[in-house]
């Protein structure tokens, strides 16, 4: 056998993607804070579905359920940047844990208000108090950025894992919420989500060695004054409306066919499509497609669920959601890359928080609009709302320019 060449030796030494992940979780404390973060993040995919099922089942109104969840998401959009600034200045453990306790108490208050038939206004007040929930994925990304600040390749691997974790939680969360509510009692999803959130945050914040240091207040101008940021904010707002409206429309559609318990699984397929496409997009890492192309693909594919709903088959709708979801992750990755490029470096967290705020506000608007369309038109007609929102996002992307991401 001939001796190995220099090229052979380089190939053998090249680390695989799997070894990169092994190295990440070999860092002291990384496995523990990741376990806590995933445990706390899973309820993020449960709470909205749990609230819609719980309220609609008790009060018989999807419009009320959509309005309540919209109010909570709108409150979260307003409180999110404020909570994030406090975390940056005072530390994760000192701020995130008390904020989580307030949020959990709000979820329990909502459960009790529904259970004991309290007036409708109490539902809005209780769900709005959950707005203090910290951006859990952002907390984890901040720890990776601190631990891997001098290792860009490893940080890229960590960010890829976090994106996959987001999709996984939003894929499993609705399934778990629907299963719990359908198998046990309507409030089971909300109760379980609250327990998981608090337990996960306790474990996460206990890992003080990996917590990033606090930062001083930045003197840079607001990210909103950076060129190209306002159109991107509109993109995130419209994309959030796609998610919010699709969720309410799908639950109502399944309920109208006596298959409410299957709604979570159907919604999970949309997240599964997004997760698969995101992994493929991350592996290829093309120099192309621009944000406008991703938004155009999203707009076209979001018409599919509307068309599928007209067939009257939940199975056909599930397949359409799987395909439609494949445009989501590439769009979000491309848009976030542009946010990072256009935001001042010392205010990057604020810029990212603003985009999350836009996304949550959009989800709130989409939930309310989808609930109204479901109740006043039909569950099938409600699927026109996410399709229209996707075309609005495309228009905003065109207005924001065609910069490559």
From TrEMBL:
<keyword id="KW-0812">Transmembrane</keyword>
<feature type="transmembrane region" description="Helical">
    <location>
        <begin position="351"/>
        <end position="374"/>
    </location>
</feature>
<keyword id="KW-0472">Membrane</keyword>
<feature type="transmembrane region" description="Helical">
    <location>
        <begin position="60"/>
        <end position="83"/>
    </location>
</feature>
<dbReference type="Pfam" id="PF07690">
    <property type="entry name" value="MFS_1"/>
</dbReference>
<feature type="transmembrane region" description="Helical">
    <location>
        <begin position="380"/>
        <end position="399"/>
    </location>
</feature>
<feature type="transmembrane region" description="Helical">
    <location>
        <begin position="291"/>
        <end position="308"/>
    </location>
</feature>
<protein>
    <submittedName>
        <fullName>MFS transporter</fullName>
    </submittedName>
</protein>
<feature type="transmembrane region" description="Helical">
    <location>
        <begin position="95"/>
        <end position="118"/>
    </location>
</feature>
<feature type="transmembrane region" description="Helical">
    <location>
        <begin position="21"/>
        <end position="40"/>
    </location>
</feature>
<dbReference type="InterPro" id="IPR011701">
    <property type="entry name" value="MFS"/>
</dbReference>
<dbReference type="InterPro" id="IPR036259">
    <property type="entry name" value="MFS_trans_sf"/>
</dbReference>
<keyword id="KW-1133">Transmembrane helix</keyword>
<feature type="transmembrane region" description="Helical">
    <location>
        <begin position="188"/>
        <end position="207"/>
    </location>
</feature>
<feature type="transmembrane region" description="Helical">
    <location>
        <begin position="228"/>
        <end position="254"/>
    </location>
</feature>
<feature type="transmembrane region" description="Helical">
    <location>
        <begin position="314"/>
        <end position="339"/>
    </location>
</feature>
<feature type="transmembrane region" description="Helical">
    <location>
        <begin position="260"/>
        <end position="284"/>
    </location>
</feature>
